[in-house]
């Protein structure tokens, strides 16, 4: 155990919002451990980022069983951070994990079976050294497993005391509505949905957002900065040490080139607002009434500090929204 003591003013930094119609409140920014917290990353840097986030009022830490690399190592490292620093504040934290993507060999190591989901949750709790998680997600819909089985497994996690709330990620509007119905019959509310959403990816607006609002389900978009495209990193070129240059499965060189004109135009709008491109992109996501909190990633504490400012930023004028929409349409015609 370290001598870490959380900042006494941490609850004066970021506003909180109710998650759908549940009693759960989440900070307007949450920290995702998808990248930069794995076994290949510098542990002390991740530890520093987690502590700084909590000092700034970010109480929600989002993980998944396969985050790393290697898979599982982000949960292991977060468990160490809990043991070293954040453990005394467990009742102030909202910790989530997910299961759905490939995690181990064989037919029970991915997708949405009861066998996989509940085994994965047990493994996640063991890696993090926790008795329970606050939110357990089905990370993706399984086309070959009845939704009743997948949602039944989530309900079992709650009834068994291993999760307080449940959510889904990457589910369509139709799938989400059905999942909500099944869970409601089991006495467990579907509290939150985690979709991909940003200035460059808006496919969830027409159907999913209205469904979430109608059903009273919270929303925590991931990839709000489009894997770093909506930051200053790619404004002039594609740096040799960037994710796009490495031909990452998450961001392709060609994708950045295709969006370059849009990114530059959006950066100009952000500058006129007195924001960085990243700050404006996050502020734009948070303007959506359906959105409870936005999931940020970071590789340095300075990025977290920069992004926190968006939680209290001024809203957008009609002219700014029109300019943003026009910029996002550049090169799309």
Q: What structural class results from the helix and strand content?
A: alpha/beta
CATH homology-level superfamily: NADP-dependent oxidoreductase domain
Strand order of the largest sheet: 9-8-7-6-5-4-3-10
Instruction: Provide the helix percentage.
Output: 25-40%
What's the main sheet like? Answer: 8 strands, parallel
Number of strands: 10
Tell me the number of helical segments per DSSP (H or I, 4 or more residues long): 10
Give your account of this protein's structure.
With 333 residues, this protein is of the alpha/beta class. The protein has a single domain (10-228, 277-314), classed as NADP-dependent oxidoreductase domain (TIM Barrel), CATH 3.20.20.100. 38% of the residues lie in helices and 13% in strands. It is built from ten helices and ten strands. Strand 3, helix 1 and strand 4 (60-62) form a beta-alpha-beta unit. The radius of gyration is 19 Å and the shape is globular. The chain starts with 15 loop residues before the first strand and ends with a helix. The model has no long low-confidence stretch (mean pLDDT 93).
């Amino acid at each position: 155990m370290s001598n870490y003591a959380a900042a006494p003013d941490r609850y004066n930094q970021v506003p909180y919002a109710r998650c759908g119609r549940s009693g759960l409140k989440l900070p307007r920014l949450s920290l995702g451990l998808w990248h930069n917290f794995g076994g290949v990353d510098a542990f002390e840097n991740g530890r520093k980022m987690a502590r700084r986030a909590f000092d700034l009022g970010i109480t929600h830490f989002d993980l998944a069983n396969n985050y790393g690399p290697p898979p599982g190592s982000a949960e292991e490292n977060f468990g160490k951070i809990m043991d070293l620093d954040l453990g005394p504040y467990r009742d102030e934290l909202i910790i989530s994990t997910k299961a759905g993507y490939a995690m181990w060999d064989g037919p029970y190591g991915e997708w949405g079976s009861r066998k996989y989901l509940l085994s994965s949750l047990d493994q996640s709790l063991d890696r993090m050294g926790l008795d329970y998680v606050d939110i357990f997600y089905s990370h993706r819909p399984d086309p070959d497993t009845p939704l009743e089985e997948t949602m039944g497994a989530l309900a079992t996690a709650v009834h068994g005391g291993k999760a307080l709330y449940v959510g889904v990620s990457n589910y369509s509007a139709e799938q989400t509505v059905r999942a909500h119905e099944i869970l409601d019959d089991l006495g467990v509310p579907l509290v939150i949905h985690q979709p991909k959403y940003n200035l460059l990816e808006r496919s969830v607006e027409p159907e999913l957002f209205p469904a979430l609002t109608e059903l009273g389900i919270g929303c925590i978009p991931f990839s709000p900065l489009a894997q770093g495209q909506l930051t200053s990193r790619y404004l002039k070129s594609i740096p040799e040490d960037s994710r796009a240059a490495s031909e990452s499965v998450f961001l392709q060189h060609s994708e950045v080139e295709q969006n370059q004109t849009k990114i530059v135009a959006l950066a100009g709008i952000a500058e006129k607002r007195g924001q960085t491109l990243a700050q404006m992109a996050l502020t734009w996501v948070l303007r959506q009434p359906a959105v409870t909190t936005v999931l940020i990633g970071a590789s340095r504490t300075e990025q977290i500090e920069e992004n926190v400012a968006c939680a209290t930023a001024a809203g957008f004028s009609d002219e700014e929204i029109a300019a943003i929409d026009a910029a996002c349409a550049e090169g799309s015609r």
